[in-house]
């Protein structure tokens, strides 16, 4: 059999972000794969140390725009841990609302991009149109469709007025039917089944070995969701089930995402129903002592970890991340092995890779 | 001939995207302009292409990382010479929040000519469409050898009253020169200069990422977020996209030293209902204030 090496970039991979692969082929099947990262390396680790803790809220929101709320909220949680700040209960709920809104939009974007990658243009447009309900809600409540600017150290800096809350409740109502339909469609539609079932399989053992997280892990039956395993913020008072699948293929990953999006709708509704009255934020300008902390959260792509060290000044001494996409990239080697070249864009997009997060 | 012209008019203008290392915000919003009917670039007679050599308009996102530079320049060189280049988001223009990093090699203009800027972080789809319309106008004018038409009415449609986070506005009369805004601004968009007659604040709309943190922490509401998102402009006008204001010095009522008096907004924030005694203090420099309230300071 002939061995060949090809290079693929964002235009071939149907990626929004610049990522390059070197793929080794045996005949027309993938034998091995090298990821060539770095195009989106903006020197974040260096930048965060040159920005004070306040500036970092805005900077980190732009570490990646698809999970943009997870970054500042997890960062603020780390700062609050160092300073021993307990954020007001209302703020806990409002952070959860922001995170779940972003989760729905992020999961839908991932499903849309995959539909596009297999040439299902009508489905791509439909999913994007449904996602617009979320985009519109984000802009109406937060003032921007990607970067919500919801967090401050000590709480949040947006409020849900009764009108905004009822607007959001209405948007959630609007999401239910389309999300249920998409779930059935991605699960049972024969055309989508043909392209997505038993494709890009990640066996459970390999998943454990690669330490994958988020929907990629849950699609292999790994019951791990930070919101359940180590609840933060309001999540210990909210009711939901971890979405699980066992097949470990592209279809299973999307079923997990769509089930989660539907669950996020319910989580937001619960938040709206339980939203306690009270302040939005603890102290405006709290003292941040020297110390260190780790904060974790369940970002749309999985477990996100922040390590922060401070020295009592306004500037962090160290800030490090473990982003979910990092481990998921590694699993691509397993998923792609033996797959035809034509499946590469779909499988790559099925892990919902975030290059901005990984390259930083 | 007429038929010929019509055919040329129906030929879509091709848009080509280059991501130079963005946070993906601008790119995801650009994807919306190819997927969602309301914002589809087709309404402007445009269509996206995946081949560089077909590009009529090049849309560039991201701060231009060192690692992406060569690939970006290679792609750009493959686009036709008469293409119009659009910088999408503030990243390519100023670096946005990523400025001053060893890994960023912007601004984009150092490497290639930019025709139109669309500030925003990310710009909303309607802002993207407005910017692309501006690029179409530059293209038309250049082809016809005419000057670029002034953009007409820049007012936003009244129906579109979404409270989008847009241009920041500065009210110098409320500013107390505490400079908290500059302290919290991740993008370095705010500058203070001390002049003869007062302190001047300058805010660059091409650096600002519209996060609103400055206005959140501003104690007097001197900085506020407006809903004005129509900020697209010819790249040549980049340095005119600023918000400015001067806070005049006043002589201290005690010693005559020039000072920035406390604004009424601050007094109200601190004291609720300032009494005449407090009103008097606001026109004193710190030294005189101390003398007046606790006598001559002991050293
Ligand atoms: S301008 Fe803002 S949204 Fe656009 S790429 Fe830069 S940081 Fe991201
Ligand atoms: S909104 Fe204010 S703090 Fe945020 S980037 Fe603009 S000037 Fe800076």
Automatic annotation (TrEMBL), chain A:
UniProt keywords, alphabetically: Oxidoreductase
Pfam families, A to Z: Complex1_49kDa, NiFeSe_Hases
Residue ranges of domain NADH-quinone oxidoreductase subunit D in the record: 118-283, 287-360
Origin superkingdom: Bacteria
Gene3D superfamilies (UniProt xref): Cytochrome-c3 Hydrogenase, chain B
Protein name, as recorded: NADH-quinone oxidoreductase subunit D
Organism expressing this protein natively: Geomonas propionica
Automatic annotation (TrEMBL), chain B:
Domain 4Fe-4S ferredoxin-type: 166-195, 199-228
Lineage: superkingdom: Bacteria
Keyword terms: 4Fe-4S, Iron, Iron-sulfur, Metal-binding
Kinase listed as a keyword: no
Cofactor: [4Fe-4S] cluster
Pfam families assigned: Fer4_9, Oxidored_q6
InterPro entries according to UniProt: 4Fe4S_Fe-S-bd, 4Fe4S_Fe_S_CS, Complex_I_20kDa-like, NADH_UbQ_OxRdtase-like_20kDa
The UniProt record lists the keyword Iron-sulfur: yes
UniProt family annotation: Belongs to the FrhG family.
Protein name: 4Fe-4S dicluster domain-containing protein
Natural source organism: Geomonas propionica
Lineage per the UniProt record: Bacteria, Pseudomonadati, Thermodesulfobacteriota, Desulfuromonadia, Geobacterales
């Amino acid at each position: 059999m002939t061995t060949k090496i090809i290079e693929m970039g964002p235009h071939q991979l149907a990626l929004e972000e610049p990522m390059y692969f070197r793929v080794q082929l045996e005949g027309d099947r993938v034998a091995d794969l090298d990821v060539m990262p770095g195009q989106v390396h903006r020197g974040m680790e260096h930048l965060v140390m040159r920005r004070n803790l306040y500036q970092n809220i805005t900077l980190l929101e732009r570490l990646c725009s698809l999970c943009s709320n997870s970054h500042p909220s997890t960062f603020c949680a780390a700062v609050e841990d160092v300073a021993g700040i307990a954020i007001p209960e209302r703020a806990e709920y409002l952070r959860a609302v922001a995170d779940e809104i972003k989760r729905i939009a992020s999961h839908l974007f991932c499903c849309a991009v995959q539909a596009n990658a297999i040439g299902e243009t009508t489905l791509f447009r439909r999913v994007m149109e449904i996602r617009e309900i979320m985009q519109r809600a984000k802009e109406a409540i937060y003032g921007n469709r990607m970067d919500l600017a919801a967090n401050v150290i000590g709480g949040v800096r947006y409020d849900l007025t009764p009108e905004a809350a009822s607007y959001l409740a209405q948007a959630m109502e609007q999401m239910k039917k389309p999300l249920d339909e998409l779930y059935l469609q991605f699960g049972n539609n024969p055309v989508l089944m043909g392209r997505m079932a038993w494709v890009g399989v990640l066996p459970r053992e390999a998943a454990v070995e690669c330490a994958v997280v988020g929907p990629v892990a849950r699609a292999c039956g790994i019951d791990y969701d930070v919101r359940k395993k180590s609840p933060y913020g309001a999540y210990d008072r909210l009711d939901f089930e971890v979405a699980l699948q066992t097949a470990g293929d592209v279809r299973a990953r999307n079923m997990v995402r769509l089930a989660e999006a539907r669950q996020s709708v319910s989580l937001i509704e619960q938040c709206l129903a339980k939203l306690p009255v009270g302040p939005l934020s603890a102290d405006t300008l709290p003292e941040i002592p020297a110390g260190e902390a780790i904060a974790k959260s369940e970002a749309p792509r999985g477990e996100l970890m922040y390590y922060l060290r401070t020295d009592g000044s306004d500037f962090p001494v160290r800030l490090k991340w473990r982003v979910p996409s990092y481990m998921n990239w590694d699993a691509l080697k397993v998923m792609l092995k033996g797959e035809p070249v034509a499946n590469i864009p779909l499988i790559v997009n099925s892990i919902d890779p975030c290059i901005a997060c990984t390259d930083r | 001939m007429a038929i010929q012209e019509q055919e040329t008019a129906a030929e879509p203008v091709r848009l080509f995207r280059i991501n130079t290392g963005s946070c993906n915000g601008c790119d995801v919003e650009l994807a919306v302009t190819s997927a969602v009917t309301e914002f589809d670039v087709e309404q402007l007679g445009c269509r996206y292409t995946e081949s560089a050599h077909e590009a009529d308009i090049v849309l560039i996102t991201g701060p231009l990382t060192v690692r992406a530079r060569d690939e970006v320049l290679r792609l750009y060189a493959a686009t036709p010479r008469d293409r119009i280049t659009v910088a999408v988001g503030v990243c390519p223009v100023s670096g946005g929040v990523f400025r001053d990093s060893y890994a960023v090699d912007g601004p984009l203009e150092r490497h290639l000519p930019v025709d139109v800027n669309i500030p925003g972080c990310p710009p909303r789809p309607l802002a993207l469409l407005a910017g692309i319309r501006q690029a179409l106008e530059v293209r038309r004018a250049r082809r016809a050898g005419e000057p670029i038409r002034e953009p007409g009415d820049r007012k936003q449609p009244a129906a579109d009253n979404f409270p989008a986070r847009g241009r920041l506005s500065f009210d110098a009369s409320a500013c107390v020169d505490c400079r908290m805004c500059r302290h919290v601004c991740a993008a370095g968009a705010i500058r203070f200069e001390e002049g003869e007659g007062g302190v001047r604040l300058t805010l660059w709309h091409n650096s600002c990422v519209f996060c609103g943190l400055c206005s959140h922490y501003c104690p007097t509401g001197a900085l506020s977020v407006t809903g004005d998102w129509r900020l697209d402009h010819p790249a040549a006008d980049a340095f005119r996209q600023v918000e400015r204001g001067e806070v005049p010095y006043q002589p201290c009522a005690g010693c005559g030293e020039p000072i920035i008096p406390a604004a009424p907004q601050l007094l109200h924030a601190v004291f609720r209902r300032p009494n005449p005694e407090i009103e008097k203090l606001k026109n004193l420099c710190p030294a005189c204030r101390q003398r007046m309230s606790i006598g001559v300071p002991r050293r």
